[in-house]
Design a protein that fits this description.
Shape: elongated
Order of helices and strands: HHHHHHHHHHHHHHHH
CATH class of the domain at 61-160: Mainly Alpha
CATH architecture of the domain at 61-160: Alpha Horseshoe
Oligomer: single chain
Strand content: under 5%
């Protein structure tokens, strides 16, 4: 169904108003009433679409005359010949798919939303936008493998943004098992690509910090936090990555100072409590010799020094005491 607007509802004959004011006033009232009636009917129609009566099939508003299979939108995509014959209608068709997907997302019907994004991706397979939306919805649904598939395809298409790289890295790093060598190489390539872009330094550093935390890589954390500390010094994520670096270096004083900064940032209280508990547990005095080689070396030195002092003291006492059992002089 297509909606056509007509500006004639609002047209008035100025000459007639001047010559016949009463008639003009009556005409204006009739026009206003007609416009209000039309608006009311449109509002009622929109409300009926959002909340159809029980037992009645939902109605779908469409801009395009290309039909959509609302149960399986991927099964009914206009052919190349059809879209080339009427590209404007095909553009309306894409708007219809996006509108249905967004409407489903607002209702949190993510399984339905992802069907329309997949159909959009099938209709325009050389643009990143629909693949990106499908990836995001799959991520919300907790279907990580499907999300990775669509994000990975978006990275190689026209219109890709840093948001797709960030989501792809987040999904990959979220796996419970360690990253493989191929995955590390893939993420390093994404970082290199972003750093080559005019505005890609911050997204690249975020991905590198996520990898640094996952791999417990001090060098990566040092590089990425140096960048983020300049561009986003008070961001909760930046502070968290700096805390991870301080904990890796066993610098618990710095870690506690960062926790105080996090309390002033937009850090969730539960997450902050977890970090405080981790800091307190790791910084307990009796744990330090087992965590930090410096403390272990110092403890070994102290034990060795104590043993040497005991041996030396015993030797001095033995030298000062007359030999027991010595024969008396004649």
């Amino acid at each position: 169904m297509r909606v056509r607007s007509n500006s004639s509802w609002f047209s008035m004959a100025n000459s007639e108003v001047a010559l016949k004011p009463r008639r003009a006033v009556r005409a204006a009232w009739r026009s206003s009433a007609l416009v209000l009636l039309l608006c009311a009917r449109f509002a009622a129609h929109a409300h009926a679409q959002e909340a159809p009566a029980a037992g009645t099939p939902p109605q779908h508003f469409q801009l395009s005359h290309f039909a959509i299979n609302f149960d399986d939108p991927e099964s009914q995509i206009p052919t190349i010949a059809e879209r080339n014959l009427d590209p404007l209608e095909f553009g309306y068709f894409l708007q219809d798919l996006a509108a249905e997907a967004l409407k489903a997302e607002r209702k949190k019907e993510y399984g339905k939303a992802v069907k329309f994004w997949r159909a959009s991706a099938k209709a325009v397979p050389d643009e990143a936008v629909a693949f990106s939306h499908a990836c995001a919805v799959y991520q919300v649904m907790g279907e990580r493998e499907h999300a990775l598939e669509y994000c990975a395809r978006a990275l190689n298409l026209r219109g890709v943004t840093s948001a797709e790289y960030l989501r792809y890295a987040e999904l990959m790093i979220a796996q419970p098992e360690p990253l493989t060598a191929a995955q590390v190489q893939d993420l390093d390539a994404a970082i290199a690509h972003l750093r080559a872009q005019p505005t890609g330094a911050d997204p690249a550093s975020v991905i590198e910090c996520q990898m640094g935390v996952k791999l417990e890589d001090e060098a990566r954390l040092a590089r990425c936090t140096a960048v983020l500390a300049k561009s986003m010094p008070n961001d909760a994520h930046t502070l968290t990555y700096q805390w991870s670096l301080a904990m890796k270096r066993h610098n618990y004083g710095e870690a506690r100072g960062l926790l105080d900064k996090m309390a002033k940032a937009s850090m969730q209280p539960s997450a902050l409590a977890d970090l405080r508990a981790a800091t307190a547990k790791a910084s307990a005095w009796w744990r330090r010799p087992f965590q930090d080689p410096r403390y272990g070396f110092a403890l070994i030195c102290l034990v060795g020094l104590g043993g040497w002092l005991i041996v030396r003291k015993r030797a001095q006492l033995r030298d000062a005491t007359p030999g027991a059992g010595a024969a008396p002089a004649a």
